[in-house]
């Protein structure tokens, strides 16, 4: 059972959840139509924020890293959805090479990879794991804390194909977000499926492009069911020429912060929200919650001290930050025990397969819950996101989870549009 | 938990289950390829027989009637698979009219309809139930024994569309097998999806055509993974000109029975099986286990007494039997407690969504378990059919259920081929 969640501010959200419930036939038909026009990503996860008056995705991860946190009871759902993803993207594949991130010391991440391997094997694929780490020179068995094992093997490039010793896979599935760019070993593979396509990696992906696609998707969806898109969408701005270490571009950033805060204040007034508006400044490329800052006034981004500048200047893999997105902040109203709870929804193909709460006891309602070194306690959803019950209250767990699933799918759809629109001309050897 | 099943004769079947496990990547790839060439039915169920040396489907029902017997824990799997079916067959539908059988006194069947309505509603469809019964002249709420309700409404035909009062559905889903022929109200609907297509009804469907399609599918599958197709296939013969009441055609029947028994004896010898071979004579059209006879010697079908002739002459809806199929009998080796247990597997789209054992305490291992008036105890599978575990024994429940799922999907694929090959020229207003 998911513990009782604090629902002090449920008034307006109940209304949103009620609208989702009442419009479920329209919503599902709309999604079906969208998925006929857009190819869903192989998999994805999204962090949602729920303020009680607003339910919106904060980001969409195309290389999800928490399959280990899902409820075991819903593994069959994952397997069935993964079958669907394989069928859509690489139906003729019988073997698959999974390439994970290089965090060999992160037990949680390794358990995620092991879970993913299990799911994919259950679709009937012959799955092995190839590591980009130069020190993996022979098959290396890692014993994981949860009693499972994971074998990492050295990659073998042969002409335009990538494989392992005695393993020539039909498809390559990335669980590595390519923050450091495309490794040479992945370049020019034009005889194998590469999933997701290389241009979905963080070396080219931009949060602002995703936000722009989400904005369009959310507006169309909101029109379809007759709601204010602001209820499911985060306002944002972009600053494209900043250098935190050289202290250039601060004025642009401050102006954007101020403009966004002004727009949020107007909306808060319209909805009678008395919380203090805030925005989140993030590196436009990159993930893992690095390069993130919470701001309640434009003046806070002027004259940052050395520590603040260092924190913002560099993200994962040592990448310099020159472009930032300024995103509307959402106060998290959900709590479990003493901790702030942020729902994370997992999808494969276009199906919602489960999720969990990221619970943090040492952070406030307006802080980023996905930060470096952050320790969160995962709490698997106890109910699937596809079993709403009209006989229950709009905020009863099955209905709240359905609402999560609707918003999560909007973010996934936005990612599909984003991948389509950012596809390089003549990209070879890749699939969406 | 599924109770421990008697496994006295597991030797050879363990071998078959082991082959399925070892060849899972090939098997799943083969199915993916097949489903690219063949449209899966919207839904289907199959009764399997497991003799310990043979695991084969006895029939394939295109109008499954036991969704109420599935494990509640796997409802999300049904919903996800149903979403897939809707997407494939009627993606632009937002409302659906379900037409059930006319058994308004059969609580089990009505609970099946109620379960099906729930599943379909959870895909986001607006679902209502229209009855072919002339005495349903206004919306009629039936209170079911399991605490749910079901509302039957009178059908309203309007030009080339079928609906209910204030309900003009995009699609019509049949859970009525059309044994009595196509009701006039269903004829000439060329503006709505009719699912399954009308020619999948028992007014035209023949068990022998399905058996012939299954035979081809099973042979190709068996070649792919290198097994004797006999291990998953029932031998059969057909008698097309019989009249039980006028006692004509008995010689043809006896000759077919004898030939089939001879072939089975040869196979039993090859496999060292010491059981007594038997065959099952069934009406070639029709369902519900009517018109079924178990025979161990050709002489038994000569000079049938009046009671036997009456039993065979007429099936559901009073249809006369003139064509029979003579099917290889399979001794059921699975038992639960004192009862013989026959697995029934449920599918939506091409996904296995669950199943149950039909347990009968008063019938022998070589008797038909689906007979008129038969009382069976359903026992839901406790494990999904899509989570085989290579670390467990081949006959451990997840692996046995996987084997069930493989054979059940072969039967479903055979039904797809059958529906394709029996499609009338210029059939209008229908979908597979």
From TrEMBL, chains A, B:
Keywords: Ligase. Pfam families: GshA. One of its GO terms (molecular function) is ligase activity. It comes from the Bacteria. The lineage of its organism: Bacteria, Pseudomonadati, Pseudomonadota, Betaproteobacteria, Rhodocyclales. Signal peptide: none annotated. The keyword NAD does not apply. The keyword Metal-binding does not apply. This is Glutamate--cysteine ligase.
